[in-house]
Design brief:
The chain is mostly beta strands and 278 residues long. The chain has a domain of 91 residues. The protein has a four-stranded antiparallel β-sheet with strand order 1-2-3-4, with no helix packed on it. The longest helix is centred in the N-terminal third of the chain and has 6 residues. The chain is globular, with a radius of gyration of 19 Å.
């Protein structure tokens, strides 16, 4: 669920998009990345079986059109685009991370590079991925998350490396690595306060170049937000405060949302209930 400009946008696992109760399916398969700005919705889809990937910008102030089916995609694999999109581009590799901020789109393509384009899809800069020359575990140099921090972005690898990049110029300001072995699945951030989630259930709060909290969960984080005092986390069927207690819920938590002046959890049945049963 995304709220922007007074509108409620819900994206389902089949590529359907519900805007204020009106459902459409412009994509032939699941949406893999999405970002919102005043210019529209930037989204990507990937079909691994057909080895196809697209990125498109849609105007959510206009009615979305239903796109082609999976069967039609097989017949039009080289020409199929996204209906009613402002623009749509064929990608030559899978987009593994994407972040939209104001008038810029930052994304990384698997085995290709890190890119910045504007809302007209004009390339502003590109950078290589993480250095592969040193000996590292398999896939540890793959990009997992792009975080926006003021005028910079921070690009994270699965092995815990990061690049801090000036968002306007593409200049690399800092490169580093967290001081633990990890297989990062996702990184959340609130400014310079980062929460890193590893596939084996370990999570770390990372501030000022140091790990300030480490904790083992039952699985990797589904969603997390910083509420001004602590990190609120949902993981599997657990509601968690990073520095506090945890509670168990009946259904799987999907997303944390701020609604009715309290933090609540959207679960996989589409129901909303308070985080930590508060």
């Amino acid at each position: 669920m995304i709220r922007h400009g007074g509108r409620r946008i819900i994206i389902d696992i089949d590529g359907g998009i519900d805007i204020d109760g009106e459902l459409s399916k412009p994509f032939p398969c699941q949406i893999t990345n999405v970002g919102i700005s005043d210019s529209g919705m930037v989204a990507t889809w990937v079909d691994h079986e057909l080895r196809l990937a697209r990125m498109a910008l849609l105007d959510y102030n206009e009615k979305f059109a239903n796109g082609i089916s999976k069967a039609d995609l097989r017949l039009n694999r080289n020409t199929a685009m996204v209906s009613n999109s402002k623009w749509c581009h064929i990608l030559d590799a899978e987009p593994v991370a994407l972040k939209v901020e104001d008038d810029k789109i930052f994304f990384a393509l698997w085995s290709r590079g890190i890119y910045c384009i504007d809302m007209n899809a004009t390339e502003l800069w590109r950078l290589p991925l993480f250095d592969e020359r040193e000996k590292t575990p398999p896939r540890s140099n793959e990009v997992t998350t792009i975080s926006v921090v003021g005028e910079n972005i921070v690009v994270w690898s699965r092995g815990g490396k990061f690049k801090r990049i000036e968002s306007n110029t593409g200049e690399i300001i800092e490169e580093g690595k967290i001081d633990v072995e990890c297989d990062l699945e996702v990184v959340f951030n609130h400014g310079e306060n980062f929460l890193l989630s590893s596939n084996d259930g370990w999570i770390w709060e990372y501030q000022g170049g140091e790990i300030t909290v480490a904790r083992k969960l039952r699985g990797s984080i589904q969603d997390a937000v910083f509420d001004g005092e602590d990190w609120r986390i949902i993981c599997w069927r657990d509601d968690i405060m990073l520095r506090g207690d945890s509670t168990t819920r009946k259904e799987l938590g999907v997303q944390l949302i701020f609604q009715d002046e309290i933090w609540q959890v959207l679960d996989n049945q589409g129901q909303i209930s308070p985080h930590m049963n508060a």
